[in-house]
């Protein structure tokens, strides 16, 4: 894939990943766990994309975090807040509307 293609894909993925993260955090997860979870459902995300997003979401009040220090390696767990659920639901409605429009457009183009 060319650099130009990567930029196009990155732009499309930004909003999609936000919805996925807010959906995934219905259950508390630490960063690496979230990366594996998302990969297991067939999508790829890198740490350099995920962690800044998590910090931004926490700053916005959409997620909260807490440290688990019971084990050898402390882990920072993230979980969606009520405000985050509201944002997630709004994003899902937008995505569903956009998906419906694209589906109709594809049908129109196909049927010419």
Structure characterization notes:
Helix 1 packs across helix 4. The protein has a three-stranded antiparallel β-sheet. The two termini are 31 Å apart. The chain contains four helices and three strands; from the N terminus they run αβααββα. The relative contact order is 0.13. By secondary structure, it is of the alpha+beta class. The protein has one domain: Winged helix-like DNA-binding domain superfamily/Winged helix DNA-binding domain (Arc Repressor Mutant, subunit A). The longest helix has 30 residues.
Summarize this structure as a short list of keywords or feature phrases.
3-stranded antiparallel sheet; alpha+beta; globular; 68% helix; 112 residues; Arc Repressor Mutant, subunit A
Continuous helix count: 4
**DSSP E strands, number:** 3
Average per-residue pLDDT, rounded, comes to 92
Using only CA atoms, what is the Rg? 17 Å
Low-pLDDT sequence parts: none
Looking at CATH, the homologous superfamily is Winged helix-like DNA-binding domain superfamily/Winged helix DNA-binding domain
- Strand count, sense and closure of the main sheet? 3 strands, antiparallel
Q: Give the strand line-up of the largest sheet.
A: 1-3-2
Number of domains: 1
Structural class: alpha+beta
């Amino acid at each position: 894939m060319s650099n130009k293609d990567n930029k196009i894909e990155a732009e499309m993925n930004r909003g999609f990943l936000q919805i996925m993260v807010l959906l995934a955090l219905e259950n508390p997860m630490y960063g690496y766990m979230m990366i594996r979870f998302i990969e297991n459902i067939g999508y790829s995300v890198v740490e350099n994309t995920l962690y800044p997003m998590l910090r931004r979401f926490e700053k916005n009040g959409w997620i909260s975090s807490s440290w688990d220090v019971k084990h050898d390696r402390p882990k920072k767990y993230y979980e969606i807040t009520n405000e985050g659920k509201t944002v997630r639901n709004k994003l899902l409605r937008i995505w569903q509307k956009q998906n419906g429009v694209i589906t109709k457009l594809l049908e129109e183009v196909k049927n010419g």
